Amino acid sequence: MDGSEDSANGKVPEHILRRVRALQARAEHESTPPAEREASRQLAADLIARYSIAEDVPTAAAKTRDTTVPNGGKPKRTEPPFARRVALWARSRAIELAIVIVLIVLAVTVWVWSLVLAAAVALLWAVHEYRAARHIRQQ
């Protein structure tokens, strides 16, 4: 089924309408260079002629939504779907668990190093006592 059969029935493929809208939006944008504007206008006109599209194809600028917000300008707070809330909760619990594990590892590491330090001090003390006892014997 080609595009001419669609246009004969009055149905234009949605991807063609999207393409025409995009070309028109590009042609209307102020930052588009003049040569590109003209090329976009020409391509849009060609597609409109080929698919017998009505001239009143709404452009991207015309399809923008109304941005006024009820509630005195405050946006409506919407709760995320249940699965997303559960995922967010699980992720926050996982982060909390990771923090607790890091703190436990840090505490154990500090405790182990304190034992190593205590053993080193005890060994140095024993060596000192041994040398002091040997020094007394030699006198």
Brief sketch in words of this structure:
This protein is 68% helix and 0% strand.
**What are the segments in which pLDDT stays under 50 over at least 5 consecutive residues?**
1-9
Which H/E pattern describes the elements? HHHH
In terms of DSSP E residues, the strand content is: under 5%
Count, helices: 4
- Mean pLDDT across residues: 80
Q: N- to C-terminal separation?
A: 115 Å
Structural class: mainly alpha
Indicate the topology.
Elements: H1 3-8, H2 14-28, H3 34-50, H4 82-138
Plain-language structure description:
With 139 residues, this protein is mainly alpha-helical. Among the domains are: 48 residues, no CATH class; 48 residues. 68% of the residues lie in helices and 0% in strands. Helix 2 packs antiparallel against helix 3. It is rod-shaped, with a radius of gyration of 38 Å. The protein starts with a helix and ends with a helix. The N terminus is likely disordered.
